[in-house]
Amino acid sequence: MNANESNSSGSLSRRNFLAVSAAIPAALLTQAPIAVKAEDAAPKKIPLGLELYSVRDEMARDLPKTLKTVAGDGYEVVEFYAPYYGWSLPYAKEVRALMDDLNIRCYSTHNSFTSFTPDGMGKAIELNQILGTRTLVLASAPNPKGLDGWKHLGEQLTDAVEKLKPHGLSAGFHNHDAEWALLDGDKRIMDVLAASTPKEFVLQLDVGTCVKAGQDPVAWINANPGRIHSLHLKDWSPSGSYEVLFGEGTCPWKEIMAAAEAVGGVEYYLVEQEGSRYSEFETVQRCLASLKKMRGMS
Q1: CA distance 286 to 284
Q2: Which of 13, 135, 202, 222 could form a disulfide linkage to 108, CB 3.0–4.6 angstroms apart?
Q3: Rounded to 5 degrees, what angle do the CA atoms 45, 49, 50 make?
Q4: Do residues 96 and 80 touch, judged by C-beta distance below 8 A?
C-alpha cells in the first residue's frame, strides 16, 4: 500500500453509527506429562484484522458502514492508513466510539513520513492515542539514497521510538518488494534497516511483497525474533499478481504463521488485498473465511 493514497471518510453522526479451582487427585500428579505433537497443537489465539486499504473505495463512500460490515464479518482489528491523519480530533473520537460499539480495535496505523517529523508527530500522537493504537508504522520510505541514506532513516526512526515511548506508542516499518533489493551489492535494505533500529522497533511484514521479491518470509521472521508484531497477509499469485485471494497464491502460510507465533512475536494478523475478481467487501469476507479455516476456526 502506498502511504500517499488519499481517501475521504465523510462526516460521522453519533446517532448514525451507534451499534446497536478443584483439587487434582494425587494419582494424576504422579503421571508423566502427555507429549503433544506439533501438528496436533491448536493455533494460538491471535486476533484477526484487516488493513482498511483493502476496502478503500467503500471507506471513501461510507466509513461507518465499512467498519460495521467488516466487524460483522468477524474481523477483530482494523488498521487505518494514511488519510486518517487528516481527521480532526473530535472526528477521531467519534470513530473510536464507533469502534468501541462494534468491539473492534486498532493496534497500528499506516503513516506517511510526516507522522515521524517534529512538525507532524504531535498530531499523530494525539490521533493514535484516541484510537488506542500501539504502533505508528511508516508505510513507505521517504526515498533514502544508498546505504548511508537507509542508515540515516534508521537513526530517524530510532529517534521516533524514543519520542513516542513516553506516550505509550512505538514505531515500525512496512516493507514493500523494493526494500529487499541489495545495497552495495551484498546488503539487503531490510537488513540495514533492522540493524539500524532498536529491538522494540516493529518490522511489519508484508508477506506478498516479500515473496514477490523472491525472498523467504520464514527465514526473515526467524532472523528477527520478537520484532514481527504484525503481518500483512497478502498473497502472491503464480501468474504474478497481488489480485488473488488469501490462500490461493504461492505464500507458504502455515509455515509463515508457525514461525511468526513461535519466534516472531506476532500480536495480530492483518488481511490486506490490492483487489480481486470480487467486490471489496466480498473479497475481504472470503479472505477471512479462508484464514479462519486454515487456523481451524471454522
Answers
A1: 5
A2: 135
A3: 165
A4: no
